[in-house]
Amino acid sequence: MDALHPKTPSHVAEAVRWAAAEKTPLEVIGQGTKRAFGRPVQTTYTLDCSGLTGITLFEPDELVLSARAGTPLATIREALEEANQEFQFEPADLGPLFGKRPGRGTLGGMLSTNISGPRRLKSGSARDHVLGVNAVSGRGETFKSGGRVVKNVTGYDLSKGLTGAFGTLAVLTDITMKVLPKSETEATLVLHGLSDEEACAAMAKAMGSSGEVSGAAHLPAGIEGKTARTVLRLDGFETSVSARMNVLSALFGGEQDRLDAATSRNLWATIRDALPFAENKNRVLWRISCTPGEGYAVARDITSLSDARVFFDWQGGLLWLEMPDREPQEGLVRSAIAANGGGHATLIRAEAATRAAVEVFQPQPVPLAALTQRYRENFDPHGVLNPGRMNA
To answer: Are the C-beta atoms of residues 25 and 384 closer than 8 Å to each other?
Structure first.
């Protein structure tokens, strides 16, 4: 496969204009850490945007950062750490799930997949924190959406529409994000030995309390430990965290303990990046979003008919589900979701032939699918950007 290596946004526009004129499809990538996420793309040329790097603006006092789309998130995290700031939606590093080294994902890949971590419950997703983008449409036209302030009220906010589009609408070249101060400290309350159903009830109770919980996950027995652990994270000022931890702990009986800041951070990074399922690269991995109160039921219906392994994030509303082999069992997964309040299942990891044969993303209702197609045709009428990545 031939690769184009643009170094500037104008080079990107030239490459896409050529592809549109020749009706030649392009696979758009950054560092390629999530290349196997989504349907396989069959193209002759790759548009490698890893050369579009560098932080172009960082104003800690204004809580805003701008960078080229190919900038590694590791580079951005270093800059934010120096200013004691962060992306509060906790972008996940999915590279290890595909056998890639950690820390190689890019800002553009983060926004294109809209994968958010455990703090999504409290702080929202990447889509909620993007302020503006510069991009190149499938026509080769350069455009800008949003800006460098939190409130942009003129016209459509296209930056939100491009988030989670997997590069099928436009090639991102520059991205402006809202950043926020890091918490002074954090701690995690661990409840031991709860069943999946009991854990979902406990997480709901914690989220409804005055504890201001910023993370609620459940690791069943055999996932990062011999016994089941339900983990509840608090963050903020030291005195506040300590006081809220006492209140939260008093809500629950049974065996429990507390994790200090360093141990807590390590645990939540493991949950964020789905590291319990990073070892067996040949096993199919699903990411299921559903009603938090029904998460245990979805898992029950799937695991009762298979040897799948699962753990829960987002108060039980996010399931990471590892199948025992290379078989996705799509019918089983989607029927379990439909029978328990609905939701969305995304095939995160599978062989290329499998991803070409099944629905990687949750099938859309016919009216929404038609609207999505019209949206895509407006941005990329010749279908040159990541064709087939999100649908056949």
So the answer is: yes
